[in-house]
Amino acid sequence: MENDIFKALSDPSRRLLLDLLHTSDGQALVDLCEPLEMSRFGVMKHLKILEEAGLITTRKVGREKLHYLNAVPIRHIYERWVSKYAEPWAMGLTSLQNELECEMNMEKKPSHVNRIAIKAKPEQVWQSLTDPKKTSKFWFNCAVRSAWEVEETFELWNGEEKKAEGIILEMEPPKKLVMSWRFVSFPGTESDTPSRITWEIDPHAELENVTLVTVIHDEFEQAGHTAKILENGLPIVLSGMKTLLETGKMLSEK
């Protein structure tokens, strides 16, 4: 997989496409063709390579196919090839997505989309997402609390401090979980309205016992600070879940 990522990054046109998505996420093919001096078919080929490497994800919105930067593979590259050589302050360099503009017009597009492949069954992924003993090992030391019923509350606790809360909006174990989301103890998020997080858990179409986990954060037009925190935090959560399920260790362990 890393070879695919480095191959995808080796081409200047593909790096330009990533830069374009960094500047404005969720673009259609026609939007991405304009800055590149090549045919529509040529741009499609480059986008396919980027998607196969996991560097972008796509979502159908109406008749359009929108393209999104996927920060998770970049995070893994950083952890293996950068973090052990760099100073702690370099953590700020890992995010490829642009800082959220609170006044941007999001229309009906999903906003931040992250995807990762985990060598585990969907049932194991679902358990790790709903078991407080598991979440405390990959979700910034926070344990989940919920009755796991639609319209019931969802909370994340770090010891005796509640960090986030929401309502279960939709639940289809072990395939899908949709929840509203609001931070309760992060400075700057006091005025943010609840946003939404969707977890999609799908068996890989070709690889046995491999699950694709997609996390979508949207409806944050009035929750800019929350979106910025999750933009940087969710890739780490997904990386931690993958490490825990595949190795039994926490992301911070040597």
Average pLDDT works out at 85
Poorly predicted runs: 85-107
Radius of gyration (CA) equals 18 Å
Strand content: 25-35%
Instruction: Give the SSE string.
Output: HHEHHEEHEHHEEEEEEH
Give the termini distance in whole angstroms: 22 Å
| Main sheet characteristics | 7 strands, antiparallel
Q: CATH homologous superfamily of the largest domain?
A: START domain
Question: What structural category arises from helix and sheet content?
Answer: alpha+beta
Structural account:
The protein has helices spanning 2-9, 12-23, 29-33, 40-52, 71-81, 122-130, 132-135, 224-247; strands at residues 27-28, 56-61, 64-69, 112-118, 143-146, 153-158, 161-172, 176-183, 195-203, 211-218. It has 254 residues and is an alpha+beta fold. It folds into two domains: 2-93, Arc Repressor Mutant, subunit A (Orthogonal Bundle); 112-247, Alpha-D-Glucose-1,6-Bisphosphate, Chain A, domain 4 (2-Layer Sandwich), CATH 3.30.530.20. A seven-stranded antiparallel β-sheet has the order 4-10-9-8-7-6-5. β2 and β3 (64-69) form a beta hairpin. The longest helix has 24 residues, at 224-247. The protein is globular. Residues 85-107 have low confidence and may be disordered.
Task: Give descriptors for this structure.
254 residues, alpha+beta, Arc Repressor Mutant, subunit A, 2 domains, 7-stranded antiparallel sheet, 3-stranded antiparallel sheet, 10 strands, 34% helix, globular
In short:
The protein has 254 residues and is an alpha+beta fold.
Question: Could you give the topology of this structure?
Answer:
Layout: H1 2-9, H2 12-23, E1 27-28, H3 29-33, H4 40-52, E2 56-61, E3 64-69, H5 71-81, E4 112-118, H6 122-130, H7 132-135, E5 143-146, E6 153-158, E7 161-172, E8 176-183, E9 195-203, E10 211-218, H8 224-247
Antiparallel strand pairs: 1-3, 2-3, 4-10, 5-6, 6-7, 7-8, 8-9, 9-10
